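ARCHIVE CARD
Drawer: 12
Card no.: 0347
Subject: one protein chain, sequence and derived structure
Cross-reference: see card 0346
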Amino acid sequence: MPFRLLVPLGLLCALLPLHHGAPGPDGTAPDPAHYRERVKAMFYHAYDSYLENAFPYDELRPLTCDGHDTWGSFSLTLIDALDTLLILGNVSEFQRVVEVLQDNVDFDIDVNASVFETNIRVVGGLLSAHLLSKKAGVEVEAGWPCSGPLLRMAEEAARKLLPAFQTPTGMPYGTVNLLHGVNPGETPVTCTAGIGTFIVEFATLSSLTGDPVFEDVARVALMRLWESRSDIGLVGNHIDVLTGKWVAQDSGIGAGVDSYFEYLVKGAILLQDKKLMAMFLEYNKAIRNYTRFDDWYLWVQMYKGTVSMPVFQSLEAYWPGLQSLIGDIDNAMRTFLNYYTVWKQFGGLPEFYNIPQGYTVEKREGYPLRPELIESAMYLYRATGDPTLLELGRDAVESIEKISKVECGFATIKDLRDHKLDNRMESFFLAETMKYLYLLFDPANFIHNNGSTFDAVITPYGECILGAGGYIFNTEAHPIDPAALHCCRRLKEEQWEVEDLMREFYSLKQNRSRFQKKTMSSGPWQPPTGPGTFSSPENQDQAREKKPAKQKIPLLSCPSQPFTSKLALLGQVFLDSS
């Protein structure tokens, strides 16, 4: 399939008819304005409860009305909710929180943090808020978006993660100590998503700061995974980052793998990178050939393609939205409708659902208010206008309010069968679930801009266009303006400065040689070639592609830990006997 320039979400919306108000199968259509206000009220019930009971801890415990640190003591919910505030139109609170974060968040702490979670929630949240600051009325400093306090915070957080990438394979450890780097006894086993989910944030960071190290390590990690796929084109669930050997060999589109595929597509769109898209399309063929059955996606053995787990995981519900981004709308809708039947059965998506039995899997009956099915509904509604997608949004609002709402926020549903609750409200509830629900019911939101409006911004490197739409959501639903990646071309600017100096040098040389018998030929200056000389941007690109591989870092002297599990997902290990 030839690579085609993909139409960003905002522009796609202008090309497709939206049938707002069209009746659903039951003859009634959810009123977008009504549910938009319901979602906003839900957000503030959760957000205000966090501020009153949990701040400055990472997350709210809604049953006991207090807080706890979960992913690193960053006031994580505040970072994760920041861009949602602007999407809901709350400019004043956005401005206040920006000041609070600058005054209170410190990354120079002795804390073991998840490399994956810190990247998608903290680095992604800060980058998104930085790029939205001017729209939110924040007084930005000279040089924005190429400089700014939130950008510096994002860069500081990302630099704390870089030691994790210092492995023989270039694939990162899963955990890093923010003060000391990788602990000597850290396990080298990392999930696939924890290796391949950096290109959106790190490429954006490199583009804004001019430091290529972030994008470089993200690309190396992506390529190592690509090179580690099986002969039938599949990747496993967990891999040893020191040896490159697969430890958990179950292959699917769900937990432990999911956002790797997501970032190949979104990285391709964000960077207009044909190679990343070609990689995803090859994976997509293998996924269809070996894991897809009747528009469900199962787990299979990565080398043989035999079914290992006939289950649907709630995290897989992002897949229809991803399919919509590559234009595969028909398949996306069929899979979405399968997942929607599970929602209707339980009033939410259980973490694991046994497809042949049509019921939950023991000990995996919970629903932590995840966003993935709502995310897919938002994408597909923008692409099709099918009112069924609004019905999912309506059902989500009604279910979450009825089952999960408590005095201090919204609680994780521990068991969808009897509606028992758990004492946790994940930060992604405000970052993703509420955001995607609101955007589903708000067709006029600036995020859906079709390019008809934009802002022209003067930077130290020239004029650039921002806010024209086509936002790329990272896997924590933090929107990145793709145009911003073209605003801070430091390398190109330095190139022009060097070229000007070289012109002056050769002009001076010509003047000094006027009295020599042999005069220099006239004509436009051409830069010299050869080793150690200035070269054109094109040649620089070629040189970067041909540069030798970085020297491999010696193996860390940490013990190899036994790993006897069949499958490990997001830090939870499922033994063969479970």
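Annotation on reverse: Residues 30-56+318-448 form one domain. Residues 1-25, 513-578 have pLDDT under 50 and may be disordered.
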